[in-house]
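Appendix B. Extra example for self-study. Work through it before the problem class; the solution is given directly after the inputs so you can check yourself.
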Amino acid sequence: MNEKKITLSEDEIPENWYNIVADMPNKPLPPLHPGTKEPIGPEALAPLFPMELIKQEVSQDKWIAIPDEVREVYKMWRPTPLFRASNLEKLLDTPAKIYYKYEGVSPAGSHKPNTAVPQAYYNKMEGVKKITTETGAGQWGSALSFACQHFGIDLEVYMVKISYEQKPYRKLLMNTWGADVYASPTDKTDSGRKILAGDPNSPGSLGIAISEAVERAAKDEGINYALGSVLNHVLLHQTVIGLESLKQMEKAGDYPDVVIAPFGGGSNFAGIAFPFLQHKLTENRNVRCIAVEPASCPKLTQGEFRYDFGDTVGLTPLLPMYTLGHNFVPAAIHAGGLRYHGAGVIVSQLLKDKLIEAVAVQQLECFAAGVKFANAEGILPAPEATHGIAQVIREAEEAKKEGKERTILFNLCGHGYFDMSAYQDYFEGKLQDHHLTYDELHSGLKDLDTPTI
Amino acid sequence: MNEKKITLSEDEIPENWYNIVADMPNKPLPPLHPGTKEPIGPEALAPLFPMELIKQEVSQDKWIAIPDEVREVYKMWRPTPLFRASNLEKLLDTPAKIYYKYEGVSPAGSHKPNTAVPQAYYNKMEGVKKITTETGAGQWGSALSFACQHFGIDLEVYMVKISYEQKPYRKLLMNTWGADVYASPTDKTDSGRKILAGDPNSPGSLGIAISEAVERAAKDEGINYALGSVLNHVLLHQTVIGLESLKQMEKAGDYPDVVIAPFGGGSNFAGIAFPFLQHKLTENRNVRCIAVEPASCPKLTQGEFRYDFGDTVGLTPLLPMYTLGHNFVPAAIHAGGLRYHGAGVIVSQLLKDKLIEAVAVQQLECFAAGVKFANAEGILPAPEATHGIAQVIREAEEAKKEGKERTILFNLCGHGYFDMSAYQDYFEGKLQDHHLTYDELHSGLKDLDTPTI
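Solution. Structure tokens for the complete assembly:
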């Protein structure tokens, strides 16, 4: 009998995170002050983040030690299994070998706790009693709720109002882990009130929720802020995924030709891809890393590489990124975690330097891929994860056409048990693809006055 | 660093199931024909089950080989992890050592696929194209949907109407895996029509749904029936849980003083307890095995040991069991999987012979235990599973009072991600305990005319 899954023991949980900045040929450009538009140093981030995370944010060290206390919590679900998708291979009748790393075994059901835990830990170490954050579909909010609960920190979550209403169970999961959850925009912040004044029925957006959470933390010395993607330290923490996968692929006696992951802000993609990309950067090894974004929010494939804000109101530093403009409003697709106007700084630079690839996929193809996967492999993927699977199937079919083997690895970043309403809509034929018009695509870019690069 | 979880490799998946009948001092009494009330032989089951399962149902062999094809599918989630509940121990400040086997990592999120897979497999081997079954909360229905999908068998699920309406996502999961799901009672069967004639708004019950599924299979030669608990072969298949746990406890250098599991029909309890109970039966080893039932459906602690039907209408053979009477209607508690009037034959005999223990717990204590567990260990347990946890906490507190170590093992049979509405009701204070009146308790027994023992 062949091995279906390759597992690791707890002492094989990585001891260091991998910081790809050390190996990048072109380092990321510095962030700029939102007002003066001058480069800022790490100290500008101090009102929001604990010093250890700020150091990681600007570090150029290749390896950063994972604290024992964090590895201890990782053990609750790590190392995660790497599966051979043998049933999917059969179903597709492809010569491709398909592997997937499954992050859905974590308490919150996705890869997000990988960074939520160290973020809560470093805040705890520096005496922080309360954190604010935003969440879209709720994956990040529930991961941070779990982590804050573990370390005894209070958490305030600004949840995009439309998700708050559509996903009461995600909210309830956060409550179970002790977090306070508010439907954003709220009347608790200037940012929220400003949006509500313009549109009392605003359904909210990730950008607005970030503005609210950042404002709250910036105005109160005792409160810090935490972000679930985009930033360098977040991507760093997620590299445990790829580092474990490296060992597991080695155990399987294999190495991927292609590494695939869905793309929202970059942490999911970075998590699995960077440890492999390392070999491309340092040994010129031929490995393709593909970020898959929704066609309705195509910052990587159709955005502009320039400075932009991370939030809607313009409170965050300006970051050099692929962006559709911080005022871009993505269509209400079910992959809430991918509805973000920008991309992380590191991933943006790598794409600019053509070291990684990006593709955009429509949601009907994604859901069809998700159902195919559930039938073959038994796991119902989160809507975000189906984007990766859609591209995996494209690659597997291409391999079939060519009649050549191809080894594919992808990150199954989470299960879809809290997203059943999305599948219901899909089965009932209520979903459609969203083809952006020229005007829609440029809605956020045309009046953008942030610095170009 | 201590190990948080003890894992096994795929080649440590058991090669045999353990059949406790071989070691029982008093073998179970024979089933009786529902009409003649005479003992029946295995051939009477042939219209419903494939011959291999019937052989297992009556086997006295101690070990029954697990087919390679079944072990191959088990690898999709087995071996499951055994966790040390170190955070819960800290929270309870107890000298007890607490371990839990986590079955929620299966595709359907519970222990049910352990038997769904071999049942579908044996049907497939004997050329069966279609199976019927019933489901309450939906754990069993979704497990069998997954298994039938894997082996290419059509599945018709009779889902208790009130659950069908309250748990649309469980239904959707079954649909995703290709099953047809009907709200029972239906007008597709005589049994269903009979119930609807008496009460057009009947919310249904597990007993009624079994009647419908059995009738459908009995009347059509091409269709077989499958049951998710109670029967000997179902309990047999679940022993993979305990057999793996044995190896894992050995790796941890420990052995349980107490083994605990929730009790519906018996498969969950049997699964984890029988391989340990084996040592009590054959080596006189001192291990307490405790079945935990809901106080609102207390067949083990307050039922009668006598012959009774497995279904409401009276189509199944009469089985010697602890029962509240096949007409007993349990209160609408959220642990749908435990709302069954009877207990499996083997477990009933073991309880009669005082080889196992049983306790009944009210639901508020269970949900409080579930939330405590989620906060400590990160996993939100299914309402069924919280019954086990409530008893674990009682044992741990007793150990604390005595100031003595005690090693506790329990079966965390599934996660609660499809049961969030139950937690919502709990948090909103909508749930209450249900203290059965004398009349309620005897409602199903007082006019029962099945043979006594």
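Self-check: Chain A has 17 helices and 15 strands. If your reasoning did not lead you there, revisit section 3.
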